[in-house]
Amino acid sequence: MRKIFNLVIFFAIGALPLFAQQKLHVVIFADTNDGKIGTGVKEDIKIWEGLVTNIGTALKAKGVTVSTYKYVGSNCQPEKFNSFLSTFSCKGDIVLFYYNGHGGRSHKDSSKFPRMCMASHYADKWVKVSDVVSQIKAKEPRLQILVTDCCNSYYDRVAKDESYQVNVKSNGQIFQNLFLNYTGDVCITAASPGEYGWCTNRGSYLTMNFNEIFSDVDRRGNATTWEAVFKSTSDKTYKDTKAQYDRRCISNSQHPVYEVNVTRVGRDSSINRNNDTTTTSRVNNSNTPCINSRGTSTRRVDNGGTGAGSSTTVRSTLIKPNRIRIIDRGSRNSRTTMDTTVLYNSYLEKE
User: Fold this and answer.
1) Angle 326-328-332 from CA coordinates, rounded to 5°
2) What is the pLDDT of residues 5-48, one digit of tens each?
């Protein structure tokens, strides 16, 4: 059986503002219809749209216009993505691209970034994140930011809740700095090669932490860089999921990988950094229920069950002070109690 799984940020004349002829293109592809992860994806979209609203407000104050392209639910398809990209024009503009859904990679893939499934069951249709970076770069935007919230695990192997705060007070200075004072491209994805990206019904770890880190430095008015934002997001996501892994609630921690290739406007030096750290997952292959992410292969975790038919529910506490339940979502026919909250999930498809 094969598991198909699921979590990239991209003048004027006379009296007009300096950036009055520039646009911010916000592109969103999200698999909100998926039977296993759709609820978590919808929560992520709420978080993301709250952040984008703050970014848009900050940039509009500098004369930048904002265009949004949203492909969710049944519109999140590889074919629609390819059609969109074929006519998309962004020369000299800013592109902020966000994908949330299943993702995966092949052992033949050379990039550390995954492929986006976009609701397709067929690996030959999945879109490589590295290809998207190259294709958008070829359109010559001044800055592109890609955030892909999805798993990065291999598909070619056997294998009481509250909504997260989305309306945060923003002064906009950090957004103006990051989006208007840099050129180049940056990209972050939810997990290192071979890892799952984990999702709760309050949103996924990458999106929640990205929003928190980004919004926190903006509220405090601290100077920051793309490198600092991505590193803090990656480190906190790893820390949060490592805590869940240490409690044996999930089968691996996740360590987001990113690349930052930007030049600060008005400066001679470029920043070219990436984090190639890949964490190694430890899995107990006992005959107990699966706890799945948006990943591509089935992993088994010793969660106290007594056998293949066990429906034990593992309890843990999120970093945010809510009691949650991690649910066995290992297959479409799982009989495990679906008794609320966390969607650590994926679905299986028979070969």
Assistant:
1) 140
2) 344 433 333 344 556 678 999 999 999 999 989 999 999 999 99
Write the burial class of residue 300 (CB in 10 Å: 0-12 exposed, 13-18 middle, 19+ buried).
buried
**Confidence band, pLDDT 50/70/90 cuts, at residue 157:** low
The whole-number pLDDT of residue 272 equals 64
The pLDDT assigned to 140 comes to: 97
Please give the model's pTM, rounded to 2 decimal places.
Answer: 0.71
Q: Give strand pairing partners of 325.
A: 315
